[in-house]
Design goal:
Length: 59
């Protein structure tokens, strides 16, 4: 099974790279990227909580 948090890390890294290369200089693009970053952060929290709960169930 693949690690969902690793996938999120890759997406975040890609957003950072896009910014470094000037692809997010436009206001709308930057705003959208910020929204994506926020949602990825929220998704990460949910996945971490699910992992924690799953680990506790296995104990």
């Amino acid at each position: 099974m693949s690690d969902p948090l690793e996938h999120l890390n890759k997406i975040t890294e890609e957003l950072v790279e896009m910014g470094k290369h000037g692809h997010l200089n436009d206001f709308k693009a930057n705003t959208a990227a910020s929204a994506v970053h926020y949602e990825l952060t929220e998704l990460r929290k949910i996945l971490e909580e699910l992992e924690k709960n799953e680990t506790n169930l296995l104990k």
